[in-house]
Each structure stands twice: as C-alpha cells, then as structure tokens.
Write a structure and sequence with these properties.
The protein has about 280 residues and is mostly beta strands. The protein contains no helices and twelve strands. It has one domain. The chain is elongated.
C-alpha cells in the first residue's frame, strides 16, 4: 500500500513487515511569484530513489512549504514569506512590493541520518513598471537549468544541482552555487547566501536583496531550501531611472545520501508556487 502526503510539515512512516526496500518520490516546495510585474517562482525538484530499509524502521518525512507571493491576495501580510523547511524570504521592495519567497525542501530521514532531500524552487524577483521592469525568474530545484552569467540585477536564479550544491541568485557574475546575486556596477543590495544542511536540518536559502535605504526599487526572490540552499536574488534601488527588476532566487540543491540507494532520478517537480509532496511505494 502506498503512502502519500502533500501537506507541509513533518510526520512519520513505519516500514511495513516484509519490506526490504521502498521507492520514494519527493518534491520540494515551489517558489513564489514576485510582486508587481515580477518573475515566476521556480519549481521544486522531484527526486525519485529506491532505498534499502528494514521492517519496523520509523522514517521521518518532512514536506516543504511553498514560497509566498510578493503580493498576496488582498495585499495582506506576509509578503514573500519563506516556504517552511528552509525557504528564504523575498526581499522588501518598500513601496513596490516584495520578491517571492523560496520554496522549502522536502526530505526523508532515519534518526539522525538524512536519506533523501529535494530542493525547493527560488522565488521570483519583484518588478514594477513597463516592459523593461520585469523581475527575474526563480531557479528550479532540479538540475542547474539557468546559467549563472547575468549582467543585470534582474537575471534568472540558478537552478539547484543534483548532488549537493545550491543554485545562485539572479544577478550573479561568475559566482559559485549558493551565492547571493549581485552586480557590482549597479546600486544594489546583494541577496543572501544559501547555507548547507546540518545533519537532518535542511540548508536554508538566502533572503532576497532589498532596495537598501531607498523607498523605490525592486527586490530579489528568496532562495530555495535544500542540501545547500539557493542564493537570494539581487535587489536594486531605482535612483537613476534605469530599467530593471529584482533577481530571481536560486533553487536549492537535491541529494540522495542514503546508503545503497538505486534508480535515482532528478527532474523538475512542475509545482511553482505550490507545496511539495512525498510518495512512498
């Protein structure tokens, strides 16, 4: 009999009698859309693996929550809320709304041993104005699908890698995975760096960059949680009337450290803005 959970939070699964392996599909939480003319949130990673187990073992299952949109329905707080289990919060765009929050990681563990973790998607960058003021898209928590070579703050977030390094935030110029987005030649606030997992605690995504001391501009999306959290997207102030937008947050990294795991696959969960899930068969 299969087990499935789609509600964010933590529960347990007891391995049935006579069972020597389980096939798990875990999907990280999706990133939230950026406020205004913001970028889309990235989808969480979908990780499938067959994992050896023993009857009676009690596994801990944690489903990542979705990142909040930069402007929620009814324009009521919280704006750009981080997805539960490691998502980074969207940056504060002051008068121009927020970046989307990063999605939380979804994971499976046995006691103090992490068996599998699916990274969350990065939040979309905030954008307000005409066609030149679009926020960058959040990176997916899957396979490094976005290139980390943006030369403007509103670049897309980097996708999370499949084996342990987080995505970079939008606006990166030759920065490594897990780093916050920044463009040195522009008046911007860098996104926060992602953090690695600590035991069975998911690595947190970096917070999105803000407009700094200014009251007008564009904020970055939060990074997704994961084996290593994604970097937050670049935020910038509109102080010289240049076109722009906030950078998308990077997707969180995914990994399957379970001993003896086989049939491991990584792909996009296709769930931008939605909670993660776990299915065990």
């Amino acid at each position: 009999m299969s087990f499935q959970i789609t509600t964010p939070g933590t529960t347990t699964y007891t391995v049935p009698e006579g069972t020597e392996s389980i096939t798990v599909t875990a999907v990280g939480g999706g990133g939230g859309i950026g406020g205004g003319t913001g970028g889309q949130g990235g989808a969480g990673s979908s990780v499938t693996a067959t994992i050896p187990v023993q009857p009676g073992q009690v596994l801990t299952v944690t489903v990542g929550g979705p990142g909040g949109p930069g402007v929620p329905p009814g324009n009521k707080a919280p704006w750009g809320a981080p997805g539960s289990n490691g998502g980074g919060g969207g940056g504060d765009g002051k008068a121009d709304h927020f970046g989307g929050g990063g999605g939380g990681a979804t994971q499976l563990s046995l006691g103090s041993t992490l068996l599998l973790i699916a990274g969350g998607g990065g939040g979309g960058g905030n954008g307000v104005g005409g066609s030149g003021y679009i926020g960058g898209n959040g990176g997916g928590g899957a396979d490094g699908s976005h290139v980390l070579s943006a030369t403007s703050c509103n670049g897309n977030g980097g996708g999370g890698s499949a084996w342990g390094t987080g995505g970079g935030g939008g606006g990166n110029i030759s920065l490594g995975y897990g780093q916050g987005g920044t463009v040195p030649t522009m008046p911007n606030t860098p996104g926060g760096a992602g953090h690695p997992a600590d035991g069975t605690k998911a690595g947190s995504g970096g917070g999105g960059g803000t407009t700094g001391i200014y009251n007008h501009g564009w904020a970055g999306g939060g990074g997704g949680g994961g084996a290593v959290g994604g970097g937050g997207g670049c935020g910038q102030a509109d102080i010289d009337s240049h076109a722009g937008g906030g950078g998308g947050g990077g997707g969180g990294a995914s990994s399957v450290p379970a001993p003896g795991a086989t049939n491991v696959t990584f792909r996009s969960g296709g769930n931008a803005g939605q909670a993660g899930s776990v299915t065990i068969a």
